[in-house]
Amino acid sequence: MDVSAEPLLQLRDLRVSYGATLAVKGLSLTVRRGETAAIVGESGSGKSQTVLAALRLLPRHAHTSGSVLFEGMELLTLSQKRLDSLLGRRIAVVFQEPMSSLDPLFTVGSQIGAVLRLKAGLPRRAAYARAKELLDLAGIAEPGRRLHAYPHELSGGQRQRVAIAMAIACNPDLLIADEPTTALDVTVAAKILDLLAKLKQSLGMAMIFISHDLGIVRRIADTIHVMRNGEIVESGAAAKIFANPRHDYTRVLLENMPRARRHARRDAPVLLRAENIGVKFTLRGGLFEAKRAFTAVAGVSLCLDQGRTLGLVGESGSGKSTLARALLKLVPASGRISFDGRDLAGLDRAAMRPLRRSMQLVFQDPYGSLSPCMRVSDIVTEGLRVHDPAISRKQRDTRAALALEEVLLDPELRQRFPQELSGGQRQRVAIARAMILKPRLVVLDEPTSALDRTVQIGILALLEDLQDAHGLAYVLISHDLAVIRAAADEIAVMKDGRIVEQGPTQDIVERPREPYTRSLLAAALQTGEA
């Protein structure tokens, strides 16, 4: 990055308030042409609020003051018509969760084409051709075929590439990437970072990269601005920040990695045994294509003792989540599964119901898995209404308060709605919903992937305490090897629906045998996750 390059975006004394609450407190920063500026901080530090305020994308009840200059134009007072002409054309945004920015009812080709017709004025045929070029530029295989795919038919990494293709459609001068790799596995995250760096170089863009993870920005940022409680507490060249952080908070972010724990081997009975598990799905064909069978899991066998944690790692599409759901008999599967010595193979839905309370699932995205229309108390006691229908509402409320206390939440929060809680609080509510039924096996599907490091450490410590207190067995799915290393007793590495390597955590991390496992560890080191 040329330090003499002229400023492209200048924020001066930017303030954002919601009533008496200040979300951004007099922030100032400059982004120069060709520069990658990273804004780093924990959830709630004001990172996203800063850029959304600069682009006037905050809700109406938010109050913004200060100055936002883009090439000398004051964005905060620019007419809506002129601002709309800039957004998507000169300034583009890639959001954290591409499914929230892609319309599920339209193909990705039609959505990219719509941007090109609206912002670049291209006719339909030219927009279609350009959309195909953009998908190819974004590194999507078979771009001609993917043009006709709907967002739900693509993997997380593919959807993020589509979102990037849409953002760069008009060759913007400034690209804002808001946590673009948070929900992706390490190899895909590394590829997305490489793609963004390559596109920035080839298109001559400046970029603002927002992240809670300093390890991620290490390999992409020229300058770093560390935010805490709505303020920038430290700024400087990336190399200097990492070599000699001045602020205590910056040092905390650099040091906050999950710590590996060492378990002594305990003699415990086998709780879950799976033998030769297979899962197949039938995929619909296109206009001239026949339906075809897809094997998601093939010949997987594993064993989990009571009170132990098995970590499942692998890239998106490797079959981790499908295998976990097969173990809980939530998807049809071949093979044999036994739980606490009981064969589950012949049990139908009704026969499985009494066992459900002993086999619980915690999802990746607590915001998506918690109903926004229900109060926390009703969410936490959902399972009780199914498995203990005879208890009174007052008894359920008492149990909800105790469950929230166990996950270290204030019981008074049970009267709130999920959208009134932080990400870490929502995940604790999701854990409380599972724990209130006193399960013996809990499947944790990416329970920390959307959380910043300090919150991750708190959730992992909570899970460890609950495991020790209740003798729980965990199946922990994660793309984050730092999380797996900190929490798992054993690791099973999945690729293309099969377990390619399995063993004690320390052996897998320090002495991997398979090339695929070594590639995962190498990607984790590149993105700062190992």
Keywords, please?
single chain, 530 residues, alpha/beta, Rossmann fold, six-stranded mixed β-sheet, 22 helices, 20 strands
Description:
The protein has 530 residues and is of the alpha/beta class. Among the domains are: 1-90 and 176-256, Rossmann fold (3-Layer(aba) Sandwich); 99-171, no CATH class; 367-438, no CATH class. The protein is built from 22 helices and 20 strands. The strands form four sheets. It has a six-stranded mixed beta sheet with strand order 6-7-8-3-9-10. The model has no long low-confidence stretch (mean pLDDT 87).
Number of helices: 22
> How does the major sheet shape up?
6 strands, mixed
At CATH's second level, what is the architecture of the domain at 1-90 and 176-256? 3-Layer(aba) Sandwich
The outline comes out as globular
What is the helix fraction of residues, given as a range?
A: 25-40%
Mean of residue pLDDT values: 87
Backbone structural class: alpha/beta
* Poorly predicted regions: none
Query: What is the CA-atom radius of gyration, in angstroms?
Result: 24 Å
Beta-strand portion reads: 25-35%
Question: Summed up, what is this model?
Answer:
With about 525 residues, the protein is an alpha/beta fold. The protein has 22 helices and 20 strands.
How are the secondary structure elements laid out?
Layout: E1 7-18, E2 21-32, E3 36-40, H1 47-54, E4 63-70, E5 73-74, H2 80-86, E6 91-94, H3 98-101, H4 108-119, H5 124-137, H6 143-146, H7 156-167, E7 174-178, H8 186-203, E8 206-211, H9 214-217, E9 223-228, E10 231-237, H10 238-243, H11 248-255, E11 270-283, E12 292-305, E13 309-313, H12 320-327, E14 334-339, E15 342-343, H13 349-356, E16 359-362, H14 366-369, H15 376-380, H16 382-387, H17 393-406, H18 423-435, E17 441-445, H19 453-470, E18 473-477, H20 481-487, E19 490-495, E20 498-504, H21 505-510, H22 515-526
Parallel strand pairs: 3-8, 3-9, 6-7, 7-8, 13-18, 13-19, 16-17, 17-18
Antiparallel strand pairs: 1-2, 1-4, 4-5, 9-10, 11-12, 11-14, 14-15, 19-20
